[in-house]
Amino acid sequence: MAAAAPKPETLAAFEAAKGFMPVREGLALYAAAAEAGALGLPLVEVGTYCGRSTILLADAAREAGTVAVTVDHHRGSEEQQPGWEYHDPTVVDPEVGLMDTLPTFRRTLRKAGLEQHVIAVVGRSPQVAAVWGREVGLVFIDGGHTDEHASGDYEGWAPHVATGGLLVIHDVFPDPADGGQAPYRVHQRALASGAFTEISATDSLRVLRRVSPGI
Among 7, 73, 138, 179, which residue carries the largest CB count within 10 Å? Predict the structure, then answer.
């Protein structure tokens, strides 16, 4: 059976949105979200930025009759700060001098017509995960890329993935020459736990299914 694909207007909104995820990986994320949506549980994204990938999760949630939840403090991850490669001065709040991607994210969702299918949580991932109280069908880890942040996202959110649910990890680079290693180490930890098995790999996007308890 062919993988589920987003509507043309959803894909166009994704491509127009500010962000870093390539289309191939986006299509793989959408297919995973569509599959996980069949569980009828929320789809959780860790690392909203400006909402590019949130569009895909929201559309999949809409089709499944569930909701996408996206978690971010909206002050930018370490590589997005001034002086770093991925810094974008257009998302700096001039009044406080800090990044604030929340307004851009809200505009992104509104343009895509998906606001009502998303719960946006503004906060730090481990703190939000600590008060989260139910199983989820999918967790998409795409937050900070240091070991501290990637491990915190995994330890906070992976326990909430239901049996048969999916754990999706972005920016997994086995070769250090291709990118940072923190997401790769989280990916390897998930596999080594025996709780997850990999079901697909698309460039730097990995999709794992929960097959037993634990992390």
Answer: 138
